[in-house]
Fold:
Amino acid sequence: MAETKHLGIKSMTAFARETHLDEAGELTWELRSINHRYLELFIRLPEEFRHLEPQLRQRLQRHLRRGKLDCTLRYMPVPGQVAQLQINRAYLHQLAAAGTEIAALLGQAAPKPNPFALLQWPGVLQERKIDTAPLEKRALATFDRALQRLIENRAREGQQLRAGLLERCEKLETCVTAVRRRMPQVLREIRQRLLNRLAELRAELDAQRLEQELVLLAQRLDIDEEMDRLHAHLQEVRKVLSSVKPVGRRLDFFLQELNREANTLGSKSADVEITRMAVEMKVLIEQMREQVQNLE
Structure:
């Protein structure tokens, strides 16, 4: 199989089937892959094809990096095909000579052997060995077509996952922008609530002390760093999604970082609307993590 050109990011979940039918019978390959941390191969072959396993493993490892792959070959000879038989002449002569020798040792005349009785003797009648090289060649060619289709299906699924991830990146970016816009209003409302509370208590207002307390409160609620990091991580996710290399593990790392920042945002929030958006971010990030588990 020639080297396959890269088709972008790939899903680890895909299926492919290829069949070849000719005068020797029917060959059917089924390749099924699911997500896995590493590349794990399970190859099931009929006995007459078992020696092909090392070649098959090499071909799979050349084109796949991650995923649990079940690879099965089914071979159905043409119904009614008659096996070609041959007589093991050397062995038959040895049996006849041994019979004559035993009769002589017993002082008896050697009886005339029954041909059909000799045919029942193990090893006298053998199936003629068939040249399996052409059949093996067809099996490998059919396997290559199945592998190519699996790679294409993985790429197609990968592009669908990529589109879903980019869509959620846009939604996360929208949340980040909304939180940034909301924050100044939140600080104004907190300031006003504090002033109203002091007025209700009829406490004497020390303007300088009040400003100091408001500054400290604003520092505790400051989320600019979290917003900057969320934006930076989203930019990295987009960049990784444009890569031609396996991306699953890198994306998983960035999603962990996104989740950490969203958690910090939620813990710092002093506003119902910002808390709601932090929860929305965590939901989107979790959806992305589930999708990324299927990427190579």
Observations:
- Residues 14-81+133-154 form a domain with the Ribosomal Protein S5; domain 2 fold (CATH 3.30.230.10).
- The radius of gyration is 37 Å.
- The mean pLDDT is 84.
- The beta strands are 14-22, 25-34, 39-44, 67-77, 85-87, 125-127.
